[in-house]
Amino acid sequence: MGARPQGGSAIQVTSIGGHPPLHTVKPLARTLFNRVFATIYALSILALLFYHAKTLFYPTTLVSFSVTLALLISDLVLTFFWVSTQTFRMFPVCRKQFPENLTKIMERSDFPALDVFICTADPYKEPPIGVVNTALSVMAYNYPTEKISVYVSDDGGSALTLFAFMEAAKFATHWLPFCKKNNVLERNPEAYFELNHTCTSEAVNIKKIYESMKVKVEQVLERGEVDDEYISSDQEREAFNKWTRNFTRQDHPAVIQVLLDASKDKDIAGYLMPNLIYVSREKSKASPHHFKAGALNALLRVSGSMTNAPIILTLDCDSLSNDPETPLRAMCYLCDPATRPQLAYVQFPQIFRGINKSDIYNAEFKRLYQINVMGFDGLSGPNYLGTGCFFQRRAFYGSPSSLASPEIPELAPDYIVDKPVQSQSVLALAHQVASCNYESRSSNWGSKIGFRYGSLSEDYHTGFRMQCEGWKSIFCDPDRPAFLGDVPITLSDALNQQKRWSIGLLEVGFSKYSPATFGVKALGLSMGLAYAQSAFWAMWSIPITAYAFLPQLALLNKVYIFPKVSEPWFFLYAFLFLGAYGQDFLDFILAGGSVQRWWSDQRFWIIRGLSSYVFGSVEFFLKFLGISAFGFNVTSKVVESEQSRRYEQGIFEFGADTPMFVTLTVAAIINLSSLALGLAEVFRGNSLEGLFAQMFISGFAVVNSWPIYEAIALRNDKGKMPLKTSIIATLLAGTLYAASCFIFR
C-alpha cells in the first residue's frame, strides 16, 4: 500500500495466498518527460524572477517600479501554483482492478455490509425524482442485497421528499428483480428508459410503473403538498401525520422512517430488499448545524445505531450509479489484507452526463477530477471529492493506530447491531443521536470523529485531515464510469458553485490545519503542497486579474512594460507562456480530453479568476474579519427548457443579475479597447516590437471574451447580458481608464 511504483513501466501486482490478483498499479509513461521538463521550466522561472529583481532594484520611474512589483507578485503566485502542480506530475499512477477474482478468495456471503449516504436539502433545487433515481441505482447493485442499507438525509425536512421515497420503495420491489433477471447495466431507471430498452412486454410494464411513480412525485412537487389522494395506505398516512406533527413545531425533533426493512421486506420475486431509511435530523436555530458535514455526521451516527456497516459510500443526490459492479471494484482494495489496515477510502472520479460538446462551463473539470488525483494517487492517495467514495467506517474514528472512541459504545465502528432496524430500542437510539444537541456531549464530533467541521468544503477538509492522521487512499478509475452526475447549465450557477468551493478551501487554508504548514509537517512537502494548491485556489485571482488589466491599461496610456520582440528576455516570456499552456494541453489530451474542451477549460479558468475567485476571496476575508457571514447555497439541479436548449448549443447564459458578470464585462471592455488602440498604433506606422507582448495578451483575452461581446451586442434571447450590467461595466471601465491616465502620466 505505502510503496510507490518506481521506474517508467514497473507494474505492482497484489495477490492473496496464491490466488489471482485483485488489482495492479503502474506509473504513467510520461513521468520522465514531466521531470525533465520541470527542471528546464524551473530554471526559466528563476531567470524571470531575476529579470524582475533587476528591474525592481534599478527602476527608471516610480511607475516602472510599481508595475514591476505588481508583475513580480503575480509571477510569484504563478510560481507557487506551478511548483504545487509539479507534485501531481512527479509520480502519477494508474490502477486496474479484477473484481471477478473476489469470489475466488471469499464467498459472496462474506462480503462486508455497505451503508450508502445520500444527502439532499431542497426539493425545488434538487428534484426528488432525481434523488430517487440515485437511490434506486445503488439499491440495485450487483452485491448481496440484504447487505445494502441506503440512508437518505433530507436536510430540508420536506414531506415532498419523504413522499417520493415512499413511492420509490414500492417501485423498487419491481425494479430490483427486473435488473437482476435481465442483467441490466444502467440501473437508474431514468437512464435505462431514455435508451429505449422497452423491447419486451416486461420492460414495457416496468416503464409504466416507473412513469406512474414519476408523474405522482412531480404532481406533488408542483402542488407543494401531499394530498390524501396520493396516500395509498394507513401506514403512509400515519407516517405523514407524524411528519406533520413534528415539522409544524419551530424546533422539530428528528424524523426517521424505515421505508424498507432488509430483514423482512421482499421484492415481487420473493428476494429480500435492501434497507431504505429516510432521515431528517433535528435542526434548531439555537444550535449550529454545520451544513452538509453536519448532515453526514448525523447519518454516520444514525447508521451506526441501526446497521453499522464497516463500509460507507457517500453520494451526492445526483450521483447516479452507472456500473452495478462498482462496489466489487472498491472491495478489491477494501478486502485486501495488504491495503486494508491503513486504507481510509477508495475514491472514484466525478464524471458528468449532459455536458455539451465544448463543455463551455468546464463542468468536466478534468484536472481536478482525473489528472490531479492520479498524481495524488502516486503519493499517499487522492483527496476526497465529496461523492463516489467508499470509506472504511473505522477511518472516521481516529488514526489507524489510535481509536477515538465515541461517547456511547453503540456508535463504535466495530459494534455489532444484533437487532432489527425497526426495533423500538434501535429507533430510540437513532432518534437520540440525530438530535441537534447530541454533539454537545462531546467536542470530538467534527474535529476528531466523523466528517470535519470548519469549512464549506467538508469533503476536502475531511480527506486532508484523515491523511494527516496517517490514513491512505486509492483512486479507482475504471473504463466505464462508476457514477454520473449532473452539471450546472447556467453561468451564474457554475460561478456560484466555484465561489462556494473557494470560500470553503480558504477556510482550511487559513486555519490551524493549513496544508502549507500543518499539512507539510504531517504529510511531507509533496502532499502538503498538493493540498495547498487547492486550499489557495482563490489566489489565482491575483495573477489573472493583474494580467487582465495591467498590461492593457498601460497600453492604453502608451506605456510598454514587456521586453521588445528583438530582446532575448522576450523569448523567456514566450517560452514560459507556451510551455505552461503546452504541458497543460498535453495533460488534458492524454487524459482523454478534446481540443475544443481544452480551450473551454483554459477560458473558464480565466473567467473563474475574474469572478468566483475574486468574490470568494472578498467574502472569506469579510467573514474572517467578522464583518459578515455567509451560508451554504445549494446548486440548483432544475433544468429549464430554454436554458437547456442554449446550453446544448454552446451559448453562454448571462441572463442572471450578478456582480460577477460586471467584473467579467469590465475586463472584456478594457481588453478590446487596448487591442483596438494597439492596432491603431501599428496602422499609424509605429513599430510592433514594443507593442507586441501587450497586444498579444489583449488579443488572447479578446478571443476568450467573445461570448461576452456576443451577449452584450448580438443576442436578443433571455440569456443575453442584462443592460444594467453592461452600463455599470462600461462606467467602471471608463473610471478605471481615467484612473490609469492619472497613474501612468
From TrEMBL:
The chain crosses the membrane at residues 32-51, 57-83, 529-550, 570-590, 610-632, 660-679, 691-709, 721-744. GO terms for molecular function: cellulose synthase (UDP-forming) activity. InterPro entries: Cellulose_synth, Nucleotide-diphossugar_trans. The keyword Glycosyltransferase applies. Mn(2+) binds at K292, D316. The active site is at D155, D459. It is found in: Endomembrane system. It is a multi-pass membrane protein. Keywords: Cell wall biogenesis/degradation, Glycosyltransferase, Membrane, Transferase, Transmembrane, Transmembrane helix. This is Glycosyltransferase 2-like domain-containing protein. Its main location: membrane. Signal peptide: none annotated. Pfam families: Cellulose_synt (PF03552). It comes from Salix brachista. One of its GO terms (biological process) is cellulose biosynthetic process. GO terms for cellular component: endomembrane system; membrane. The keyword Nucleotide-binding does not apply. UDP-alpha-D-glucose binds at K125, E126, D155.
